[in-house]
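pls read this stuff:
=====
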Amino acid sequence: MTAFWCDAALINVDGESAAVAERVQLETRNGLIVGISAGTDPRPGGHVLRGVAFPAAANAHSHAFHRILRGRTHDNRGDFWVWREQMYKSAGELTPETYEQLATAVFTEMVVAGYSAVAEFHYVHHEPGGKPYAERHAMELALARAATAAGIRLTLLDTLYLAGGIHTPLSPEQARFGDADARAWLERLASLRAEIAQNFAPDMVSVGAALHSVRSVPEPDLAIVAKQLPADLPLHIHVSEQPAENQACLQAYGVTPTGLLARHGLLTRQLSVVHATHLTPEDVHLLGAAGATVVMCPTTEADLADGIGPARALSDAGATIALGTDQHAVIDPWVEMRALEHGQRLVSGERGRFSPGELLRAATSGAASSMATPVASAALRIGAVCDLMTVAPGSARTAGSVPQQFPFSATASDVTDVVIGGELMASHGIHRSLGDPGRLLTAVLKAFS
């Protein structure tokens, strides 16, 4: 048994509500919380964590290689097409070796920021030009090893990407993303699941599925996926990120992207739609009625000028709101929480669109609901995995804040300790086994122009 004592902690007090308690002792066994005591002193042999303990965050949408783009796409005012050209260039430079190094650094950055789990939306499958690697899952295994090294729980979302647009073939830059068709992808997905299950701990690395978008998966292939995808897999898809996507889908199929998914019975609780920025009222109703998860990535959507999605309306309709960092312009769960609420305030002209508690749920249990093995809870409780972060209450940013309102004041710089599976993984921005993520990132990013 391992014990962690915290100055204070957000704990589940009655099975439903959460409250911040002082001087909290957490007892863990096999990575699970088995005891919680408040108003107690540290016991000999335990870990003393200074700060307020919160559940660790879960990152519901990541493209690890996009971290290359941070601070590199803003020349000539940095429009979307400058970003897109650099993204394709970066994807073309990846090898299994460099991707493992890069992803290890990116996942380490996530851990020290307070994340314990990530859903990696992965589509760089093959060699440039589209030829499969001799080890057919070389890129996928590189990501799994990277997550294992960083100690973060990985849901590897193997992505179907067949077209460059509706009725448009893959471009040369996209060739390494593709598979022959949906059936070939389903076979490769089954093979990947078997290999991951054989070689990695199931509570740390698991496989899910993704469709890149309705632009990239023709409707006949979408129909095959709807009929043949294993029911136990989470399914993710980019939806309505740009108005042009909606227009193309309406012209080709007579419905919006959400309507096309509904046509094929894909709107379920297993579905996570990413961005969902430009929705119709009917789209909102369909997603809410299905109880789907909607993954918002506020800092990326701002960086790419995508727009601000109807998060409040989606939540009110019954959808689960989750948060992700997407292209990693920022890796900071507290900033993503704040950005979600700020965007809703800006489009509505009203404060308090989401409460601090709702924002915490979006970053923890909401995000975890999109993963193969949901792990994050909205408050520390007996029976949950011991994944937590502590936050300094007296920094220049948090001083004077009520801990429950840290979503409006804290940043990743205030995260003092991170525990994953009952193991202390990071302290004061330094990973316990890999060191400074800045050093790791600086070393690996030199390989990319």
About this structure: The first helix runs from residue 80 to 93. The first strand starts at residue 2 and ends at 12.
